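Marked as duplicate of an earlier ticket. Keeping the data here for the record.
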Amino acid sequence: MSWLDKILPPRINKKTEQQGRRVPEGLWVKCPSCESVLYNDDLVETVNVCPKCSYHMRLGARARIDSLLDADGRVEIGEGIRSTDPLKFKDSRKYPERLAEATQKSGESDALIVMSGSICTVPAVLACFEFDFMGGSMGSVVGERFARGVRAAIQNKTPFICVAASGGARMQESLFSLMQMAKTNAMLTRLAQEGLPFISVLTDPTMGGVSASFAFMGDVVIAEPKALIGFAGPRVIEQTVREQLPEGFQRAEFLLAKGAVDMVIDRRELRTELARLMALLTRQSSEAVAA
């Protein structure tokens, strides 16, 4: 200990002061659009929508469910189903290793969570994609959970809602993942035959096999503001056609103008809008059956 340290008052401790000034991690988030520094608790209240510029940041599946479904009466569907490795697929790593990493990163067992419950007291079955699980890719588990969700909607005579956030089919399952495109569409055909509505909500991003199958099959197709929606990405398309793409190409507002989606809804208003649409579609279906 130096002579200066000996004469300084005990309350002065440089190391302690530096530690006290350190800001805990995770308290602040920078908006990717307007670059405003936002308090994390404020973002929870706005459902990950920037209060300054209304930019819609990505939202996890569980947080999405909490923002839409009523707290009481929730029942998760198909949570026990797990992915296998029938093809013994390996690229730079084995498929089971990638699954384990995705589970650790996202906290989920696969890329789709399905729950029955209610939205503003209107009964529904809700399916939400978890993009943090291998880019929300659609494999056999996603297809099976989707199918079981539709069966539950048919059994309970309720609407079925799917919130998509996916990069497309899961390459590690090859043909098995592509078969889910037909499987999900076949289940939606059964739902339509029962006169029950399907509402599709497209978020950023909704691409590949998901957009090419059930994502645009909804009785009502809703998109979040500025969500990237399409099959191949804009860069791939530009390289293929060798043309400059229009501004806003493949964004929600562009698709709305072209008639590919029905509505662009702010996430903060989605819960009440879904309840309104379900009540309207259910009433129309009942009147059609009665007639």
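See parent ticket for discussion. The first strand starts at residue 28 and ends at 30.
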